[in-house]
Amino acid sequence: MSAPPKSLVSPAPNSEGPPGFDLVVSGGEVIDPASGRRGPYDVAIADGRIAAIAPRIEPNGAAVIDARGCLVTPGLVDLHTHVYAGGGFWSLRPEPVAWRSGVTCFVDAGSAGAYNAGALLDQIATSPLGLAAFLNISSRGLVTETGEARSASDCDAALCAEVLAAHPGVLVGVKSRLDHHAVGPAGLEPLRQARSVAQAAGVPVMVHIGGGPPEIDEVLGLLSPGDLVTHACTGQSMALLDEHGALRPAAASARERGVLLDLGHGSGAFSYAVAEQMAARGEWPDVISSDLHLRSVLGPAFDLPTCASKLLALGMPLEQVIAAMTLTPARVAKRADQWGALALGRRADVAIFRLERVEVDLFDTYLVPRRVDQLLVNVATIASGVVLEPLPPEPLPPWIEATAAQRRLVARPPSELRRPWAEALQAAEDFARLAIGTPPRYERGGR
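RE: above sequence
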């Protein structure tokens, strides 16, 4: 195990008995939705695995993380990310985000299609983090910003199925981006192809919604139980709410038959107005994901704990928030036997947070602020038993627009980047503004 940061971990005093453990996370409040365990527990790690969970564990010479006053959760699972490093317009390396966010497992959401999946598969095989991917129905994936599925030649269902079948458990679903930029005149055909491939393989489709056409009711009508609608709180024309703020009948029907909602915050797909209306009806996302990529990491998404803090501010219960970032995404990816739980013998992926009282503004993607009074702040991230050390952000590529404030932020030394990045950008002009229209407006509570 590599040497963890001295500021987090201290050697235990000598005690009698065999050592047994490499590291003990001591004194925290464990929240593990997979087991239903919640309360004060210590977690012991040996040889990269969870070795013990108990109200009190004697370190017997192991290093100790003092987690008093902290939440201890399974390592978070971010189901919608773009982490195909160097593989296209959107993708970044996950490691410079993992250490400060508590995310130990990243699922790439369609950065690669059949033509360019090879290097992503190599990255997955060699990463110290848990990685998997949804394969894009477009054979060329997201090499460019958008437009990947605008013609019939862009999508080859038979080829997608062949590549998917060759990598079970690694390629965990099929991604279809459905908005007018991505599909243009192809309309619903990419989704129909994705659906046929996914059904045959027994995996879910993740469908991106945003600015149509297509029409949202047509999209929802093609989805089956276990499929996911990502960008579930988008305020664009494919929103799940009607003009009065009520859930569309097609969305209600999709929910009843088991279609899942994924937050997929991103840089253009989260509206407080939509999220508030859905919250008022108890329509919380099943999965909280960041849609992490080269734009969204600059805000206002930033990372998965920041996205989760916005839902906490809207009233989503803490344990439900943790489940939506651990147990549920692990199940969707069919990795629940490996990810998203604190269980004996499992890979030791652990996240430690403080739920801090704060007074900061968190922005939606229309740059509408909301003052929040609590924030999930990562204290330590443990992946396979190793406390991850600070890493600098990767340099911004020239095609990503950023403000001076955003550039100053990513230029800071890693020692200054543990605190939530949202605290550093507290004005709308700190963010690059995207052309996603005006924010939707509803009467409070809808009808």
